[in-house]
Amino acid sequence: MKQTFSTTEYPVFTLEFSRNETSFDSVDAICGYFRACIEAHRAAVFIAEFDHLAHTMSLPEGQVGDEIRAAKNVVFCFGIALPSPQALAGRPRSIGVAEIEQGFMVTFLEAPMPIANAAMEDWANGLLKVQSAVA
């Protein structure tokens, strides 16, 4: 038997925005948007939508931050490369979507694959309304 431990850490991408900065009005709508983005990508596949808040609240020992009103994960995978069995530990990908008092927060672990990061950042930034310049 061989056992290893990796201390590799990946940064977390976080995008927090108010309700007036987006045309989306709920976590469900935002998750639907991400699902459409995933399904339109040539190498990504949608796996599931997980209601993290409902699950945590259903546990007797479940604890949820006071500011969280809704929280779901959109689970998917980019199938571009599988260089080693260890790569499975960081897969599949997940984008977290939370509704908080101030608006919404989108989070995901940045991947070691630039193509995946670029796609996820583009998708996240696509949630924001285009701000017109005031003359």
From TrEMBL:
<dbReference type="Pfam" id="PF21651">
    <property type="entry name" value="DUF6858"/>
</dbReference>
<protein>
    <submittedName>
        <fullName>DUF6858 family protein</fullName>
    </submittedName>
</protein>
<dbReference type="InterPro" id="IPR049204">
    <property type="entry name" value="DUF6858"/>
</dbReference>
